[in-house]
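Handoff note, outgoing to incoming analyst
You'll be picking up this chain. Sequence as last confirmed:
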Amino acid sequence: MAHSALPLAGLRVLDISSFIAAPAAATVLGDWGAEVIKIEGPDGDPNRRIMHDSSNYPKSAVNYPWQMDSRNKRSLVLDLKQAEARAALDRLLVNTDILICNFPPPVRDKLKLAYDDVKKVNPKLIYASLTGYGESGPDRDRPGFDATAYFARSGLLDAQRYEGGPPGVPGPAQGDRATAMTLVSAILMALMHRTKTGEGSWVGTSLLGNGLWSCGVIAQAALVGAFLPHRPPPDRPRSALGNIYRTQDDRWLQLTIVRADKLWAPLCKAMGLDALIDDPRFAKEPERRANAPELAAILSKTFATKPYEHWRDALAAEAVTFGVISRPQDVPDDQQAVACGAVVETAIPDMPRTLADPIRLGFATQRIAKPAPALGEHSEEILREAGLSAQEIASLKASGAVR
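Most recent structure output, in case you need it:
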């Protein structure tokens, strides 16, 4: 599909953000046709190096985090601490539709990059802000990452732990990517507002707000004074029909049977446990809950007798709700991930496949991912497009304001 046919074609985005959540929002806009200019400081976005800097990232000869989060972008290096670079940014802002920024409020104020500063340059600008903890309150100025603000502060990590055990540690950037989609939603609402009124606006979200929203059941329960103790281990679950089980070939299955009375007999048939259907210990849901450890032991022993493929077919044949707990190494061979458009081909030579963003439209298909830019790869090109003369660009480069 031609770039011009994409719904966000013709929009210009300045991505003045770093790491993952806010830049990923810009990536999604670019996937759907927007022109995205990545504004970086002289040292570049730390996401360029995060695979090597973080012990939690799988190591590869391919800089996959940078390629995934900066595909289809152009890079302009501006040292915004210098007045000349800040003035050059204003030249760009005049013809920009959306600015994405994740600087903490004090940094924005120091660089004159708050919404009140930039709307003077372009009143129709949509200013999208991402913070760790929100725009107001005692923690507004604290830097936040998804591990600290999204997962830890929201209660998500504590809500998922087993009794007696420590809180879990999230994988890299899980909360960042969910938060990115919220920022995209806010930007699209601002675009609708501008279409109706002609006005620009401020929109934003926070990692904390998104973490609480993701932890909605547990957090809302807490707001009305309701709590559960930490999750008991799998050998004595609250419900044996909402539990994990290991198969013969060391795979794990997640049973999630909500309509328990309806699916109890089908589950027993799928597992060859027909004798349990009318067993008074398990015949109805109250009894199954009361005898959950005993039932879990029976199911655990049975699941361990055959491989995953057997249980996949047997449970599916009886319409029992379950899921395999996939391993990251299963993703490359997941045919469903390809079929549903979650894994797509790219035009990136050393990374021929990537993850698509999760939006699907009946009238358009995402752009094919092109390589992420080298640091400052497009600086002169972008500044020329903004109307700066060759002499002005040379002066900026000589002063170190531009690279």
